[in-house]
Amino acid sequence: MINHIIECQSKKKAVLILLLLTWALFSVDVCLAGTPSPFGRKALAGRFSLGFHPSFVKNNNFLFFTHLGYGLNSSMSLTSHFSFQNTPFDAYAGLDLRAALLNHDRIKLDTYLGAHLGGLGNGYDAGAICNVDFFSSVGLVMAIDADILSGKNSANSPVHFIAGLDIPITRNMGFILNNAFALNRAAYRGFSGGLILFL
Fold first, then answer.
1. What is the pLDDT of residues 51-99, one digit of tens each?
2. CATH number for the domain including 127?
3. Per the structure, how many domains does the chain have?
């Protein structure tokens, strides 16, 4: 009986993931301006997180980000972001510090500050991420993400609102889907997704 329930839940998750991927791939044609969107929950204290984050962009460009995080304590984590990309985006490397503002059973609110090199230009990152758990297995992710570019690109600093789903596959693995909406003229509408592992 229990095995049957687990099988049904796994099939429902697989169907949900396929439907969301199909919707996203046919409804969105660009990604975030060569920089990664907030990706997954922060690493737990003393543990690592590893994210694999592919994105498709206009003109058939493909971006692939890797995220490596470490939980400093129960409320703070450090996360690095890397990508080797094709034109029109430069290779990307970034680091941010993420801190919990609210850590309720079903609602978590974090903020982050960081800096990056590459993408559309060097600069700073800031934002807030809210995770809301519902249906005991799927989480809703909402975020505001700002890239504050420096130098000649400072007028083209993108700001996005991100909405997505965090779907656990196992206790230490999750599937993430993010859909980004432009909040200013420098930002792009976009879609990305991928896997996050907690080690």
1. 888 776 555 566 778 889 999 998 999 988 888 765 556 678 889 999 9
2. 2.40.160
3. 1
